[in-house]
Input
Amino acid sequence: MARVTLESNSEWPATFLLGNGRHVRLRAEPGTVVVARAGALWITVSTDPRDIVLTAGQCFALDRGASVLIGSLGGPAVVETAASGRLACAA
Output
């Protein structure tokens, strides 16, 4: 299984095309924004019991630093991540 791991926000903003069933793992700081540019995403945050699902055009802003797993859901997806202040999220 192919995977990408980002260890810091210094590598952001970043955009990924995730094939069906693929994922990216990153270490996010508070305020990090995740945007579904196409397809659907399933987001799991290490310090949050919820599972977050985004569809194209939706976003999610982390309220705390954490390890984050972002996977495509039901087909390929495009995900964009950015440090706080680099992408707006009105969700």
